[in-house]
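note to self — DONT lose this again. spent like an hour looking for the file last time. sequence + predicted structure for the chain T wanted, 420 res
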Amino acid sequence: MNIHVLLPHPHQHFLKGLSRTPFQRCRFIFHASTPLASGIPCAQPLNSLRLHCTKWMLLSKGFQRKLSVQTTLKEPAEGLSDKEQRLVDKLYTGLVQGQRACLAESITLIESTHSRKKELAQVLLQKVLIYHREQEQLNKGKPLAFRVGLSGPPGAGKSTFIEYFGKMLTERGHKLSVLAVDPSSCTSGGSLLGDKTRMTELSRDMNAYIRPSPTRGTLGGVTRTTNEAILLCEGGGYDIILVETVGVGQSEFAVADMVDMFVLLLPPAGGDELQGIKRGIIEMADLVAITKSDGDLIAPARRIQAEYVSALKLLRRRSAVWRPKVVRISARSGEGITEMWDKMKEFWDLTLASGELTARRQKQQQIWMWSLIQESVLEHFRSHPAVRERIPVLEQKVLRGALAPGLAADVLLKAFKSRD
């Protein structure tokens, strides 16, 4: 329930009584001369009463001399202990204030597979989502960050490009977050590629944040928490989010449902590219960049660029306002990277003005929800006692060829359905 109260001279006992009201959201209007806290109007008294100031705004017309503050009664999430509530509040406060340590700890929390930590992560994500929506409303409904998916075959120079590209963006005043999804070691479960160690200059930039995340065997090479990590980075004030995927394969189809623009990086001397790269992946690309276009590779880079320009004309367009482009770039000399960024901004402006960007993000929210449902249903199925005790026996029979996989699946499904 929302209430609006004009408080020329708020009394301490009145404010304290608000902490016991059932209202979840209240808006208070204080007179400009109201004595509150030292230097920070209303912040200290209300925080001490479990009231949290989220934003200030000057009132127009007859109330220009008054100051408005939207406050939210902070009620502990149901089932959380005081220690857990303090942890969530600390991470949330540090995150929205732009503290990198809190962002890192928040992403670690959402990546956890521990059941209780997953519940805490959802509480934190809900708070960040509400803050994110409020900030978008202040931004006239426009998205706060540009989400870009970046992929390409091994050896295309993705890390080298990201470091040069990222330094260029931070020098122009942007805050960049790189979510590098690495394949995982079967032994330790950790990342194999170590992208952060290959972006030494960018990793030291205080306006850039690099987060390598092991896939832990996730199909498609995109972690189950990549969407959540994107949301946390945007809540932390990063206005450009790069999601680097494992290579060329199912990961592209997964990351396309998370980002605004999909960029494909290709090397100039990789053989027959039009045969080696799947047509479906080319159809998904909004921008194709031929890398390493310098020295002896300039001529083959031009040839490959011409081939892809011709090939893209034959493919179905994903957007009504944007035709995919092919550019040549060199992270060593810097050639073409500024022009590439100009085309990316052109894509952003066209899709935002046409409404395609908003529609795509709404569709992605729906896909995100159903992917989480599928994951939760499968986890619930595998953890059911009647199913869990049969899985090892049936797997062995399938491996020996004594039982068809379809029959094994039917047995498990019947065991699950008869659980009552």
